[in-house]
Amino acid sequence: MDDHTAPASAPDRPARVLVTKIGLDGHDRGSRLVARFLRDAGMEVIYTGPWQSIGAVCTAVSQEDVDVVGISSLAGDHLIVPKLMAALRDAGLGHVRVVVGGIIPEGEVDALLAAGVSGVAHPGATSAEIVELVAALAAEARAADPGPSGADPDPGPPGGTAQPRPPGGTADAGLSSAAGSSAGVPTGTAGIQAVRS
Fold first, then answer.
1. Average pLDDT over every residue of 45-52
2. What is the spatial distance between Cα 194 and Cα 64, in angstroms, rounded to a whole number?
3. How many CA atoms lie within 13 Å of 154's alpha carbon, on the beta-carbon side?
4. pTM score, two decimals?
5. CB-hemisphere CA count at 13 Å for 69?
């Protein structure tokens, strides 16, 4: 297993991550592994298991005060993630970052990023890359959290285009590791897809 050296998040409390599967995809082995190595990296992980509705995920995000939602998709359920993104924004939870992992065709990544998804992890992404990405996104979510006022400073792109960027902070279209280097690997092959903030 990879070395999990990335910090969990801000010093006040560990990053809180909801790992879930929406829709009818019941393939949950990968999501259980991700939940385990996020937990092993010091994050607080809430695991829902498969077959969740969008409403149930939004309720869990609100009740559990999560920073990041990890959605696993191996059978096309990532196609309903834009509806989840809209529901999160409607609930005043647009500051929460969402990562989708699994079998995501290269041609569908841009639609996920445009809907507000913060990153896409393909098969081959290392646990260290995922931990680093989730830790960085948790810090971003906390910085954008409107608190009890409910005003959402980060509603996501309203039908606009998201500019992909790796967590390193520099613009780089293509496959990016959590450290921000593309290493010449074609987009969508393996690893972490470029992310939006």
1. 94
2. 27
3. 22
4. 0.73
5. 30
